[in-house]
Amino acid sequence: MKFGKRYSNITVFMAMLHGVIIGIAAIAVVGIIFVGAEGKRTVDKIENEIPASGPAEDKENGTPADLKGESLSLYAKQHGAFTTSASAATFIAADTSLSTAAIIHSNGQYFVWSAVGLSEAEIEGILEADTYKKEFSVSPASCDLIHTTNLWEVLEADDIAKIKQLTSTNDDEKAKELAQHIDTITAFTNDLKVIRLHLLSKYANTSDCVKISF
């Protein structure tokens, strides 16, 4: 049996064109969905990388980024340098004039200091025979922000009243700890050079709060 021609060329062409249009539309829809998903992932990534508040923290040692690298230049009255803490302690015990001196450990040595000043003149004015000025700097090591900031303000203070005010106006636990150390030191001296010295001895030697560099 012989069948006649059912469809004209125009009908076939229109069917093919219709199929092409549907294919293009489907690809466009898939593309829009893909771009939308990528955009959402990008936004989520950016939001995760932006800190919610406050300075970024140095993950290596817990120091806030805005304090990392900040240093304070100071000057010490040095009496000697020793290879062991025992020999430094023996040196202090043998000299009654060193009753308020302290041992500072840095770079594998134990230094005997009796004063820490903010300027060269502050130390040069009290130098004696067999003593000399030692320039150094301190920088934050592993303290949290409020604690380190308070310690820096105390080290830079040029009046005993300022120190007591700084430690009495903050209820943070670390600030209270700092205030207790200051109370202990000021019980035997009001000399700012000695106060700075013993705070450095505490926070550099035992608490690893500050790093001393020469």
Rounded Rg? 35 Å
Overall SS class: alpha+beta
Oligomer: single chain
Q: Give the biggest sheet.
A: 5 strands, antiparallel
Flag low-confidence runs. 1-5, 42-69
**What is the succession of H and E elements?**
HEEEHEEHEHHHHE
Based on Cα principal axes, name the global outline.
elongated
Q: Indicate the percent of residues in helices.
A: 40-55%
Record field, number of beta strands: 7
Strand content: 15-25%
Counting DSSP H or I runs of 4 or more residues, the number of helices is 7
Give the strand order of the largest sheet, numbering strands 1, 2, ... along the chain: 4-5-3-6-7
Q: Ends: how far apart? A: 108 Å
Structural domain count:
2
In round numbers, the mean pLDDT is 76
Keywords: Membrane, Transmembrane, Transmembrane helix
Transmembrane segments: 12-37
